């Protein structure tokens, strides 16, 4: 290949505004790290959360951290140092990891819908259908299929000859923008691969919607108002996350070039690559009392440990001071 590096789209024209963007990105990144980190810690540390639902939520938090860490650190570095460059290998790595994390995340979201369907519609068969071995196998299949899909798209995209410059009109390396730099009809192969992937994603979406239709029908037949509230509180956040994730992702990859513009592409890319990882922990914990309680307990335990450590250090210093004086 003749291209040694790509030039990413800057967020602003002046360095002062670039620094402002850096501060904004840093805030979003820290929010995503904190939110997903708390979910990971809460699920790992509390034995009563070692259930299939929270196991898949832990997987989702890991994937969210991967998604946002693939794009945002490089965008932040470029904004801070007022540069646009990303190496050819760095660009290929971004595409590989982004497609891997997004593909795996969508599979996990589909599995989570299946988990909720079995828990609410077939509660007597829950342990046999969603046991620990089945959970591990489903999670492995999600991560494995995501990786194979990513290798396919990355190989397809970066095997194309590029002759329309090296300027990618996006703040990270995104397949549609790299295809525009291609100078042969070979890019149609990757376009069809993308269409096939989106078709699979749409099939997953239909599966999720059908699952939720069955879930809501079962929930509305529940005699207990408390039971209905608990079921809705675990299902509605998941549906909100899926809708946001799929609608923005499909729009970004399948929109017509005639309605494409750098500012619109930028907003859509930010919506599907930055918003879900930062907002998912908030959506999932807002209506989930068990998770809220576990996070509060985590904070209490950590502050208690910090206070104890503080007292130990002060006691140690005081002892040393007294012995030195005597």
From TrEMBL:
Residues 35-284 form the G-protein coupled receptors family 1 profile domain. CDD domains: 7tmA_OR14-like (cd15227). Signal peptide: none annotated. Coiled coil: none annotated. It comes from the Eukaryota. It is found in: Cell membrane. Keywords: Cell membrane, G-protein coupled receptor, Membrane, Olfaction, Receptor, Sensory transduction, Transducer, Transmembrane, Transmembrane helix. InterPro entries: GPCR_Rhodpsn, GPCR_Rhodpsn_7TM, Olfact_rcpt, Olfactory_GPCR. It is a multi-pass membrane protein. Gene3D superfamilies: Rhodopsin 7-helix transmembrane proteins. The chain crosses the membrane at residues 20-41, 53-72, 92-114, 134-152, 191-213, 234-254, 266-284. GO terms for molecular function: G protein-coupled receptor activity; olfactory receptor activity. Belongs to the G-protein coupled receptor 1 family. This is Olfactory receptor. It comes from Anas platyrhynchos platyrhynchos (Northern mallard).
């Amino acid at each position: 290949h003749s291209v040694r590096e790509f030039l990413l789209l800057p967020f602003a024209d002046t360095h002062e505004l670039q620094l402002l963007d850096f501060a904004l990105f840093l805030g979003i990144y820290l929010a995503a790290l904190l939110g997903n980190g708390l979910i990971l810690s809460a699920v790992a540390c509390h034995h009563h959360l070692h259930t299939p639902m929270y196991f898949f939520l832990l997987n989702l938090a890991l994937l969210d951290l991967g998604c946002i860490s693939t794009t945002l650190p490089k965008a932040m570095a470029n904004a801070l140092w007022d540069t646009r460059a990303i190496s050819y290998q760095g660009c290929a790595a971004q595409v590989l990891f982004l497609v891997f994390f997004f593909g795996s995340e969508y599979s996990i979201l589909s599995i989570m819908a299946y988990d909720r369907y079995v828990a609410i519609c077939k509660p007597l068969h829950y342990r046999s259908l969603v046991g620990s071995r089945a959970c591990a196998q489903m999670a492995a299949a999600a991560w494995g299929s995501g990786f194979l899909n990513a290798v396919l798209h990355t190989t397809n995209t970066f095997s194309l000859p590029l002759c329309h410059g090296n300027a990618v009109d996006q703040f990270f390396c995104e397949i549609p923008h790299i295809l525009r730099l291609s100078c042969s009809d070979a890019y149609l192969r990757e376009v069809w691969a993308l269409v096939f992937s989106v078709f699979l994603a749409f099939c997953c979406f239909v599966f999720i919607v059908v699952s939720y239709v069955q879930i809501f029908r079962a929930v509305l037949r529940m005699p207990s108002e408390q039971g209905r509230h608990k079921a809705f509180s675990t299902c509605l956040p998941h549906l909100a996350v899926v809708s946001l994730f799929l609608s923005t992702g499909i729009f970004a990859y399948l929109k017509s070039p005639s309605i494409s513009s750098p500012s619109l592409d930028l907003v859509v890319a930010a919506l599907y690559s930055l918003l879900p990882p930062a907002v998912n922990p908030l959506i999932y914990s807002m209506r989930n009392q068990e998770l809220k309680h576990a996070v509060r307990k985590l904070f209490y335990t950590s502050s208690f440990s910090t206070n104890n450590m503080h007292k130990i250090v002060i006691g140690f210093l005081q002892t040393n001071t007294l012995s030195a004086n005597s």
